[in-house]
From TrEMBL:
It is found in: Membrane. One of its GO terms (cellular component) is plasma membrane. Keywords: Membrane, Transmembrane, Transmembrane helix, Transport. The chain crosses the membrane at residues 62-84, 116-136, 142-163, 175-201, 207-228, 240-261, 301-327, 339-359, 371-394, 406-429, 441-465. This is Equilibrative nucleoside transporter 3. The keyword Transmembrane helix applies. The keyword Lipid metabolism does not apply. GO terms for molecular function: nucleoside transmembrane transporter activity. It holds the Pfam family Nucleoside_tran. It comes from the Eukaryota. Belongs to the SLC29A/ENT transporter (TC 2.A.57) family. It is a multi-pass membrane protein.
């Protein structure tokens, strides 16, 4: 099978005709191009028509559920990594008093860890998303998912093994090892995100939808695990062991599931060959598009790309860095002392985000109204002042005007729902709005803008905290 190759000097994609089916798949039926369905693969005429069979079924929906698992597998390990904050604070505590953690007088390693965590992950993540966009077809579709999943499993196995190891005598060495793992996770996650998004873009729209639902569900699982560990009074070591072992298990089953679907006729039909596609006319017109620059695709996608940046800029600018500073109205009970932030902040956001993504698949904003989607994403900027006027502490400049818990929980619910809804619409409708030949590249490009939104949001969060 011929491969898609890049002309690096012009940042353009050269697509051989034999690879056409790997890009077209059954999505060609959803476009306005000149298409006639035929029941036989034997017919042809002098106009250069190609007649082939319709798509085989996705037996037992195995490919569908695998892409849901891929959505979970791409984000659950990282969610658990940051959820285990108490574990990291324990590992980097003062070794003079090893029996407890002093949250008011943090060590240098404790104070630096969160900042290094964000920087070490986000910078390589965004950088490699850009690299993957430019060189997206240098490696096979199989390699672009299996290799990062295997590497991710290896890295998290190392992290899991370190939980029970006494690192007090080599804290700086363990800190360095952890940061190096975080950098590697950022690189691998970018490759995995790019690969999964690109392949999901070749499948019917509901497969991209289940993938983005899986990513939201990963956040819910992490939040529920954190709440259960708090209710059960699990110590930081035991909680971390549960988090990381669960991550290892999910990555392993995701890896196995992706290997299994390689034998699926449905999956091969959409990603590898033209054998079982539907009748396609005007091949010469498509051949004239065999060389398409990334900028050309971006020119068609820019409203969705900007919408994704705006969406994640606002969301990450507030959640979790700014949102976790909330102080509840009451005091002296388990809700206010232990569960308020895990439930009202993390769980509420993740459930709302998940619901928004479901609705985004059911009631999307059509391509003809893409500028309305862009405008609605821009309007989400209003969440910055709304949250900053809630009872976030410490603060030095702005007054607290919206002190009631009702305001905070309402804002968090709306922030999560709108984030999920807009990202689902932008990813699914945006990718399907371009020529079927370009949908894989479109999925990778939009993933890159998602990463850019994450980085801008993280920087904005830091600025907002200084303004408080």
């Amino acid at each position: 099978m011929a491969n898609i190759q890049f002309d690096y000097s012009t940042l353009s994609t050269s697509i051989s005709r034999s690879e056409l089916g790997s890009i077209i798949g059954h999505h060609v039926l959803e476009t306005p191009y000149d298409i006639n369905e035929e029941t036989s693969s034997e017919r042809s005429d002098d106009e250069g028509e190609i007649y082939v069979h319709p798509s085989p079924p996705d037996k037992y929906k195995i490919v569908y559920w695998t892409f849901g698992l891929l959505g979970i597998g791409t984000l659950l390990p990282w969610n658990f990594f940051i959820t285990a904050n108490d574990y990291w604070m324990y590992k980097f505590r003062s070794t003079i008093n090893t029996s407890c953690i002093d949250n008011h007088n943090k060590t240098d390693l404790q104070a630096a860890f969160t900042s290094y965590l964000a920087l070490s992950n986000n910078v390589p993540y965004v950088l490699f998303l850009i690299i993957c966009t430019i060189f997206n077809n240098r490696f096979s579709k199989l390699f672009r998912v299996l290799a990062p999943l295997t590497a991710l499993l290896l890295l998290f196995s190392i992290v899991t093994a370190c939980v029970e190891i006494n690192t007090d005598t080599w804290q700086m060495g363990f800190f360095t090892l952890t940061i190096l793992i975080i950098i590697a996770v950022g690189v691998i996650s970018a490759i995995l995100q790019s690969g999964v998004s690109g392949i999901a873009a070749l499948l019917p729209a509901e497969y991209m939808h289940i993938m983005v639902l899986g990513q939201a569900f990963a956040g819910i699982l992490a939040s529920v695990a954190q709440i259960l560990s708090l209710i059960g009074n699990c110590d930081s070591i035991k909680s971390a062991l549960i988090y990381f072992f669960t991550s290892d298990t999910v990555i392993f089953f995701t890896l196995i599931s992706y290997i299994v679907i390689q034998k699926s006729e449905f999956f091969k039909y959409h990603t590898y060959s033209l054998k079982d596609a539907t009748a396609l006319k005007n091949v010469s017109e498509l051949e004239s598009r065999e060389k398409v620059s990334i900028l050309h695709v971006l020119n068609m996608l820019w409203p969705y790309a900007i919408a994704i940046i705006l969406d994640f800029w606002v969301t990450i600018g507030i959640f979790p860095g700014l949102a976790v500073l909330i102080v509840p109205e009451g005091k002296g009970n388990i809700w206010n002392e232990k569960l308020y932030i895990p439930v009202a902040c993390f769980l509420m956001f993740n459930i709302s985000d998940f619901c928004g993504r479901i609705v985004g698949g059911w009631v999307p904003i059509p391509h003809s109204r893409r500028m309305q989607l862009l405008a609605l994403c821009a309007l989400r900027i209003i969440y910055f002042p709304l949250f900053m006027l809630c009872n976030l502490q410490p603060r030095y400049h702005l007054p607290v005007i919206l002190s009631s818990d009702i305001y905070y929980i309402s804002f968090m619910t709306m922030l999560g729902f709108t984030n999920g809804y807009f990202i689902a619409v932008a990813m699914v409708v945006g990718i399907k709005s371009v020529n079927p030949m370009l949908q894989e590249l479109a999925g990778i490009i939009l993933s890159t803008f998602l990463g850019a939104g994450l980085m801008i949001g993280a920087l904005t969060s830091y600025i907002c905290i200084k303004i408080l």
